[in-house]
Write a structure and sequence with these properties.
- The protein contains 19 helices and no strands.
- The longest helix has 52 residues.
- The chain is an all-alpha fold.
- The radius of gyration is 22 Å and the shape is globular.
- 81% of the residues lie in helices and 0% in strands.
């Protein structure tokens, strides 16, 4: 399902001009990052709590979600004309106000938390599938018909509201507003560091768009948006694994040994995907522009390559935040995010202004490195036995073999490239990566397959406790 979003971005790059894609980038990043402020951990807190009356617990969480949505909706409605004025793009007004209509739809999707907490993943994912599938179909059809960036706006609205209607219809608990004294304090104590971390990401995105538009124009914003979409897709695999595991680690949050085992194994699983995808994006970015999305995206090649490498590195210990959230200690999330945004402002922003997209890519790499260092510090505090270098080497080894082979072929060849040659190298890269991963991680993969076979149909806490 996540792949549909990435494919949608790549398909639209062929039907939309760089300027039209840049307009969507302004909308998506400017308003989308503000929209993320609503995701301040209300659902995570609902999963983490263990109240006796789960219907009441859900309705209290839903009340907090509605309140947060109302605040964000007002902020978005006020922000739309300000963004249009700041960027000098009056065309942002109508699609911007339209995107605001997504906010109440997201609040109505709250019943998905119930299936999530109960680890009824098949029902949860089935209902969640409505949004990306409908959004993909509507967006691509409208883009082919020449609707421009409106295809993205309408597709996002249709997907979000369809998912909201179905989620509300299938909710195990009635959607009611319930307030109890002290509940806001509990949610605020859990959520404010997550809000700070989200705000840090919003600052990075907003400043990137504003500076990109000022320095390079809408085409530059389009390049940043396209590269970011690939990086986000690379990270989604780890997010899916982490989110799936979260209810289980909440149930055993006082067992540090089980937490450590689940952290190392699930991070290794995610690295099997994240590192090959990120490095593959770096290796084949030029081919993608030459033989797929078009030469007008040539200025974005270096940025896509850099973001691929950054995405691969970001998977190291990526799921650390879920373990701190499960224990109710969310402050480290704010600290690490704050460090990253400071480095971004000191490095990536000046890099963009002075050296265009290449300087921006270098600055983003420094910000990612700072976040990785902070992440590793807190991992060592939570898990004193965690050894970073062996963990990283084991994850990188399969990709190092396949990437090294591709680089060697290109050095020895030295001639012009064709689409057939690029496709052959891609198949070789994927094949060698799979074989090397099977050879080096056979035991872990066998254990995971065993969990699937023995745990099918059971709502228990898998992936922990095995030896």
């Amino acid at each position: 399902l996540t792949m549909l979003t990435m494919v949608k971005g790549a398909v639209l790059a062929a039907f939309l001009t760089t300027t039209e894609y840049g307009v969507w980038g302004l909308l998506f990043i400017s308003l989308g990052t503000l929209l993320l402020l609503k995701q301040v951990g209300v659902g995570d807190k609902f999963v983490q709590q263990d109240e006796a009356d789960q219907r009441l617990a859900f309705q209290k969480a839903f009340t907090v979600e509605v309140a947060a949505s109302a605040i964000v909706l007002v902020a978005l409605l006020l922000a739309v004309p300000l963004f249009a004025l700041a960027y000098g793009e009056p065309d942002l007004l109508l699609p911007g106000f339209a995107i605001c209509l997504i906010v109440p739809a997201l609040a109505l999707q709250a019943p998905l938390w119930i299936f999530y907490r109960d680890m009824r993943f098949a029902r949860q994912r089935t209902l969640q599938a409505i949004d990306p599938i409908l959004s993909f179909v509507v967006t691509v059809v409208l883009a082919v018909q020449g609707a421009g960036y409106w295809s993205l706006v309408i597709g996002a609205l249709v997907g979000a509201w369809a998912s909201a209607i179905v989620a509300a219809a299938y909710s195990p608990h009635p959607l009611r507003l319930r307030y109890e004294k002290g509940m806001l304090r509990d949610y605020f104590g859990f959520s404010w560091p997550i809000a700070i971390a989200t705000l840090s990401g919003a600052i990075t995105a907003q400043v990137s768009v504003a500076a990109g538009d000022a320095v390079l124009g809408l085409a530059g914003v389009g390049a940043i948006t396209l590269a970011s979409s690939f990086a986000v897709y690379a990270e989604r695999a780890d997010q899916i694994v982490t989110q799936t595991l979260y209810p289980a680690i909440c149930a055993v949050r006082d067992r540090t040994d089980l937490l450590f085992e689940s952290f190392t194994k699930t991070n290794r699983l995610a690295l099997m995907w994240g590192v090959p995808f990120g490095i593959g994006l770096t290796l084949f970015a030029q081919d993608m522009v030459d033989f797929a999305i078009g030469e007008e995206w040539q200025p974005a090649v270096g940025l896509i390559m850099a973001f691929g490498a950054i995405a691969a590195a970001n998977h190291l210990g990526f799921n650390w935040a879920a373990f701190y959230q499960a224990r109710g200690d969310t402050r480290p999330l704010a600290v690490v995010a704050g460090i990253a945004v400071v480095v971004f402002l000191l490095a990536a922003l000046p890099g963009l202004i002075l050296f265009d997209l290449n300087g921006y890519a270098a600055g983003m790499a420094l910000a990612a490195a700072a976040a990785l260092i902070g992440r590793l510090y807190y991992l060592r505090k939570l898990f004193p036995g965690f050894r970073f270098l062996p963990h990283a080497a084991r994850a990188i080894a399969p990709t190092a073999v396949s990437a090294g082979l591709i680089v060697l072929i290109r050095v020895l060849d030295g001639g012009g490239r064709s689409a057939g040659q690029a496709a052959g190298e891609l198949v070789l890269y994927l094949g060698v990566t799979v074989l090397a991963t099977l050879a080096l991680e056979r035991r872990l993969l066998g254990e995971m397959i065993g969990y699937l076979r023995t745990g099918r149909g059971q709502a228990t806490a898998p992936v922990v406790g095995a030896r």
